[in-house]
Design goal:
This protein is an alpha+beta fold and 115 residues long. Helices cover 18% and strands 57% of the residues. It has a single domain (21-114), classed as Lipocalin (Beta Barrel). The chain has two helices and eight strands. An eight-stranded antiparallel beta barrel has the order 1-2-3-4-5-6-7-8. Strand 5 and strand 6 form a beta hairpin. The protein is globular. 10% of the residues are buried.
Length: 115
């Protein structure tokens, strides 16, 4: 058991070390919403740029780089509360690193990469 615990810690340390605390400051910047997985199996490419600003604003851009939409967001209790077209969307943060973000929005798994 002692050896198992040591091996487990060795395996988990890189994962723990790579995790970043989710704050508005850490999230701020441009992110590419690369793809989403629906129903745990169907992958759908998105390739949309979203910019999270330090003032709590979020801007989405179309494929040509023009501003498409502007809204607001908050970070609370491990979630990004994104004020979408249908009201506040609760994005449960599954994983956040300096260059990758993985959230679950009502069963839709959403993947972002920092640009």
């Amino acid at each position: 058991m002692k050896h198992f615990t040591s091996i487990l810690l060795i395996l988990l340390i890189p994962i723990i070390a790579s995790a970043t605390e989710l704050t508005i400051s850490a999230l701020s910047g441009k992110w590419e919403f690369t793809h989403m997985i629906l129903d745990g199996e169907r992958e759908r490419r998105v390739n949309m740029l979203v910019e999270f600003l330090p003032d709590g604003s979020a801007i989405s851009y179309d494929k040509s780089g023009k501003e498409k939409d502007r809204t607001t967001y908050l970070i609370k209790d491990g979630m990004i509360l994104y004020n979408g077209k249908r009201g506040v969307e609760k994005w449960k943060v599954k994983s956040f690193q300096t260059d990758k973000l993985y959230v679950d929005h009502s069963g839709a798994e959403m993947f972002f990469e920092r640009r």
